[in-house]
Amino acid sequence: MLAIFNKGLVNPPQELHSPASLSSSRKPKHPEEIFNEFLISQSSNAFSINFGNAAALAYVPPENPNSVSQRWFCGLHNVYCMFMGSLNNLSSLNKQYGLSKGSNEAMFVIEAYRTLRDRGPYPAHQVLRDLDGSFGFVLYDCKAGTIFAALASPLNSFVFSL
Fold first, then answer.
1. Is residue 161 a part of any domain in this protein?
2. 162 lies in a domain?
3. Beta-bridge partner residues of 121
4. Using one digit for the tens of pLDDT, what is the confidence trace for 72-129?
5. Domain that holds residue 37
6. Is there a contact between 4 and 16 (Cβ–Cβ < 8 Å)?
7. pLDDT higher than 60, residue 47
8. How many domains does the chain have?
C-alpha cells in the first residue's frame, strides 16, 4: 500500500524527515517516480487511483487472501480507505455504527470518519481509542481534502510516507 499526498494538503511529521537526506548529495525522487516504481515492482494485480495533483493511492491485494495480514481497499461517497491488519472488535463496532455484519475494516473506518465529519465535534482520538487490534490505515476524503491515518501496533510491512 502506498499513499502520496501533496505538501499543500498535509504537513508530514518531523519524524518522517530522514537526517540522511540533509547530508546526501542524491537528489530526492519526485512523488510520480516513487509511485511508478511502486506499481512496477508489484505484481500485475496492483491498482492505483489518482486525484490530480492532490493525492495518489496504490494498493496491492494480498497474495494469499486467507493470510493473517489482511488488506482492504474501499471507496464510498468520495472517501477512500486502505486498511491493513485487523480489528479484534469489528463485530461490536459494526453494531455500534449500524453497519451490516459483512462490513470489513476499511468500510468501518470510512463510516467512523463520516460520523466524525458529519455528526459531531468528536475528536479523532475518541474514535481511535475504541479500536482494538493490530492495524494501520490511510483514509482520504477527496471532496474535503482531508486525510485520516493511524497505526496501532507495529506492522512489519506498513510504512506511512507523506
1. no
2. no
3. none
4. 999 999 999 999 999 999 999 999 989 999 999 999 999 999 988 887 767 777 788 8
5. 2-152
6. no
7. yes
8. 1
159 in a structural domain: no
Q: What is the mean pLDDT of the chain?
A: 82
- The C-alpha angle 151, 154, 158, rounded to 5 degrees, equals 70
Q: State the CATH number of the domain containing residue 145.
A: 3.60.20
Residue 161 confidence class, pLDDT cut points 50, 70, 90 = very low
* pLDDT beyond 60 at 146: yes
pTM over 0.90: no
Q: Would residue 148 count as lying in a domain?
A: yes
Q: How far is CA 142 from CA 44, 100, 157, in A?
A: 26, 25, 26
End-to-end CA distance of the chain: 13
> CA–CA separation, 105 vs 111, rounded Å?
10
| Those residues with Cβ within 8 angstroms of residue 135's Cβ, 6 or more apart along the chain or in another chain | 83, 84, 85, 86, 87, 105, 150, 151, 152, 153, 155
- Is the C-alpha dihedral spanning 41, 44, 46, 50 positive or negative? positive
- The greatest distance separating any two alpha carbons of the chain, rounded to the nearest whole angstrom, comes to 54
How far is residue 151's CA from residue 137's CA, in Å, rounded to a whole number? 7
